[in-house]
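User: My collaborator sent over this chain with a note saying "see what the structure looks like." That's all I know about it. Can you take a look?
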Amino acid sequence: MSVSRAISPKATANPDSPVAEWILLDSLNAKVALKGKVNVYTLAHTWTQVREQQDAWLLQSKGKNPILTFDASEVTSLDGSGFAFLIDVEEAQKTAGGQFAVTGLDPRYEPLLKEFDPIANLFPAPIVKPKRSFVVSTGMATQNFLDDAAGLISFTGHLSADLFWSLRNPAHVRWGDFVNAAVQAGIAALPIVGLVAFLIGVILSFQSAIGMQQFGAISFVGPLVSLGIFRELGPLITAILLAGRSSAAFAAEIGTMTVNNEVDALVTGGLSPIRFLIVPRVLAGILVTPILTLFADIVSVFSSALTLIIYGVPMVNFYNGMVQVVAIEDVMSGLVKATLFGVVVSAVGCLRGMQTGTGAAAVGISATRAVVSSIVLIVLVDGIFAFISYKTGF
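Assistant: Without extra context I'll predict from the sequence alone. Here is the result:
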């Protein structure tokens, strides 16, 4: 019988004797012998060496059911690092399909060893999730859509009832939150709304003038651009900016309160979260969206007039043409549409905040869902309003 030994480097606790030895008995049998004080210091370098020799031996005896014995008969002291070393060696042995046995362990260490039994609990096998079929994925997506639609309809009903309640009981509305939300969603949004509206007016005028110049109809650019801005682009641009700014802010704010169980505390205290948190924000959205839209209309029309001066159209001619084409009904149509957009943006942001789940990414997910849902509903409401305008002429 051939025996080969691998001695570890000198240990800190006992420099004259190695704490562990790898003993190869034959090609299918090996032994790890421990002696002396086994702790985190004495195992510092021995652990790695024994594991490397074990891996090489297991590779050579692959498929032959190798047997490894862990001999602890000469151990005088054993701490948690020694058990970790034992478990590591045992896990490698069993993973390779071999056998493992412990001999000579002092009975006083048996209770501690049993705490790690079975070893499979310490090294759980990775769970491979089966790939969903197309039918299952479609069904789950449909179910999620229906659940989301049902939640939206239910929320719309509760919000409508509480908005009506706020009209009947204005003294009970949290007007402080209303003012804060109006400042956050309104006054603070003026710079970005004004910048985008200015650029939209310039771009539309330039692009329209390039085509109309070929027909000698530069004078018609101002009235057409103004009509499009008042009826469609002004409300739409403002709503999309508020969806990316205010709706996400509402979702993040209420979502944080949901994660911190503050919304549950309101319910426990007998307060309605919709009346306490959502109604002031929706009222603020209803107020500031038409104002921001009118501001965006004025800035866009003014930038369009400045742009057409380059093409030789005086500002007086631009104004006269706009007055002849744009009627008060066109301005009111855009403001009514902006009011609906304000309800959608603020309400959807609050809804997604109330639906926030748990976890570190929950608030970010709610803010993202708020922006996406708001933009989708804005386009949907805009399409419905366009059909109504076509039928009624408003």
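A starting point for your reply to your collaborator: The chain has twelve helices and five strands.
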